[in-house]
Amino acid sequence: MASMILAEATANVSDLQQNPTATLATGHGLPVAILDHGQPLFYCLLDRLEDLELNALADARLGDGQPIVKVSLDEL
Predict the structure, then answer these.
(1) Order of strands, edge to edge, in the sheet holding 32-36?
(2) What is the pLDDT of residue 36?
(3) Dihedrals φ, ψ of 9, to 5°?
(4) How far is 62 from 68, CA to CA, in rounded Å?
(5) The pTM is what?
(6) pLDDT for the residue 39
(7) Which of 3, 18, 41, 45 is most buried (most C-beta within 10 Å)?
(8) Which CATH class, in words, describes the domain spanning 9-75?
(9) Shortest CA distance to 2 belongs to which of 32, 41, 39?
(10) What backbone phi and psi angles, to 5 degrees, belong to 23?
(11) 30-33 contact pairs (CB < 8 A, 24+)
(12) How many other CB atoms are found less than 10 A from the CB of residue 24?
């Protein structure tokens, strides 16, 4: 049965077992599809997804009509 792979980066499950860090790094922060016998087994989602969510939240807050308050790092 054919399956759609929803990630640009893929890795074999044995690659993940041998070197998890290097395997996940192949996605450069984007999802990595882990394959077993050529079929997607699961997806590893990393920092990129969180970054996209935080950017969307910041954009929404910028567009809510509230004034922007500038602060320095020392004030935080």
Answers:
(1) 9-12, 32-36, 39-44
(2) 95
(3) -100, 135
(4) 8
(5) 0.61
(6) 94
(7) 45
(8) alpha beta
(9) 39
(10) -65, -45
(11) 31/6, 31/7, 32/7, 33/5, 33/6, 33/7, 33/9
(12) 19
Token duo for residue 62: 């910028």
Whether the CB-CB separation of 32 and 11 falls below 8 Å is answered with yes
Residue 28 to residues 23, 62, 64, 66: CA-CA distances in angstroms? 10, 28, 32, 35
- pLDDT on residue 29: 81
Q: Which helix (H) or strand (E) holds 60?
A: helix 47-62
Residues 6+ apart with CB under 8 A from 9: 26, 27, 28, 30, 31, 32, 33
